[in-house]
Amino acid sequence: MRRRTPDRRLAVGARTGRRLLAAVVSTATAIALSTFTAPTAIAADPSSNAPLVAVVAGQSSGYLQIAADGGVFAFGGALFQGSAGGGTLNKPVVAAARTKSGQGYWLAAADGGVFSFGDAQFYGSMGGKSLNKPIVGAAATSSGAGYWLVASDGGIFAFGDARFYGSMGGKPLNAPVVGMSATPSGAGYWLVASDGGIFAFGDARFYGSMGGKPLNKPIVGIATTPSGSGYWLVASDGGIFAFGDAKFFGSMGGQPLSAPVVGIASTVSGAGYWLIGSDGGMFAFGNATFSGRAKYTPPATPNPTTSTSRDLAKSILTTANIQLQSVHASGVSDSANARQNVIDTSNGLAAKRSSYGGAPGGTIALNSRMLQALLTIGQKQRIRVSEISGGAHSGPSSQHYRGTAIDIDSSAVSFASIVSQCKSLGAGYAAVESTHAHCDWR
Ligand SMILES: [Zn+2]
Predict the structure, then answer these.
(1) What residues pack around ion ligand 1 (CB closer than 5 A)?
(2) How far apart are CA 401 and CA 132, in angstroms?
(3) Would you call 373 helix, strand, or coil by DSSP?
(4) Where are the strands (E) in 269-422, listed by range?
(5) Which of 355, 305, 354 is nearest to 325 (CA)?
(6) How far is the CA of 406 from the centre of ligand 1 (A)?
(7) 57 C-alpha to ligand 1 centroid (Å)
(8) Residues 386-424: pLDDT tens digits?
(9) What are the residue ranges of CATH 2.130.10.10 in the chain?
(10) CATH architecture of the domain formed by 47-296
């Protein structure tokens, strides 16, 4: 059996919504050794083509990592029975549940599509039917002969021997539902909303919630204890909130994460849990053990700011003749001022735009021809730049918002001279305006 050391620090955090008693973990629970035969060679983490969205505990040990494209990655004693990965899904997979035997599982997609594998039977889906809101969670009945889907508006859809015990569909919610979990009897379920609100139906009892309490990050998942007398909620920052007989075994709250936590699964005994990050990172607490992970690497976002622009910005910042205003001509102060635009660009970042007076907000990479001209002009005479990509300008399609324009509101020479210099440096448009010379490289 291959064992690997977690590549993440497993910290015992102290963040919880309730006072913590010292965790006394019984060692009486024997965890069956996995009979999974791993290849002798140590392989690299399997790569996932899509973000991970859920973790499902194996029947006795291990876990399944579920990806948005329907990919399934089995670790430890969890059994791989097939996946929807590689196919073309209409909508991403958002949740999963396994059968009682652990020999099968269902994947649920946002459009209500259900994919069954192994001994999991297909009992129906909402695929192809119109939904008011996307599906966000799923849970199986205790027999494994049915399942529920839940939508973000709290609507419940029951299939097979899953019965309908009530829903939040059509009722006003303070925050969208993000997940569900069934009771051990299968005669009830809890829904959890992103604000930590809990809705209990059937024989599911309410043991407390985070609804109405401040959260650093939204709740993204719920797991119940084997007794059904408690549950854990997990937030996207890895914070854990334990209720009822659910014990706190640690969290990632307050720890830096390379990707948000997206799900939680309890171990079979309930004396531990795993958290999964969207990049496949696994955090094991209590008697949960790390058995491997898939790795999802988001496509690199191309840096919109070229190295040329970055170097020009650095030169502009060290040119004493060039004064860059740190407050807009309007008097508004924000981080889209001319000086910050150039500083951001010198750091390889896109420049910010203002969000007032019709300005669009967001960012834009500054045009390198404009930066080159600004540097050239500033090397010849003293100038003061009042605006680049920030400030509010006439019309929604101002060249300032496109990162090609500068306004010079003070110079050692006339504005007419500045305009003429801009034109000789390739400006597409340059003119003396009432309070400044405007030049752009459209
Ligand atoms: Zn202008």
Answers:
(1) 407, 438
(2) 37
(3) helix
(4) 272-277, 282-286, 295-296, 322-324, 351-352, 363-364, 383-387, 405-411
(5) 354
(6) 6
(7) 59
(8) 999 999 887 777 999 999 999 999 999 999 999 999 999
(9) 47-296
(10) 7 Propeller (2.130)
Q: Give residue 43's pLDDT band: very low, low, confident or very high (50, 70, 90).
A: low
Asked if 255 contacts 247 with a C-beta cutoff of 8 angstroms, the reply is no
Return the beta strands (E) in 46-195 as ranges.
47-48, 52-57, 63-67, 72-75, 93-98, 104-109, 114-118, 135-140, 146-151, 156-160, 177-182, 188-193
Residue 168 phi, psi (nearest 5): -105, 5
Query: Which string of DSSP letters, residue by residue, matches 169-236?
Result: TTS--SS-EEEEEE-TTSSEEEEEETTS-EEEEET-------TTS--SS-EEEEEE-TTSSEEEEEET
DSSP reduced 3-state for 101: coil
Please report, as a single letter, which amino acid is at residue 97.
A
Cβ of 440: how many Cβ atoms within 10 Å?
Answer: 22
Q: What is the pLDDT of residues 350-380, one digit of tens each?
A: 999 998 888 888 899 999 999 999 999 999 9
* Ligand 1 midpoint to CA 439 (Å): 7
Tokens found for residue 103: 């020999």
Q: Whole-angstrom Cα distance, residue 412 to residue 224?
A: 72
**Distance from the CA of 382 to the center of ligand 1, in angstroms?**
19
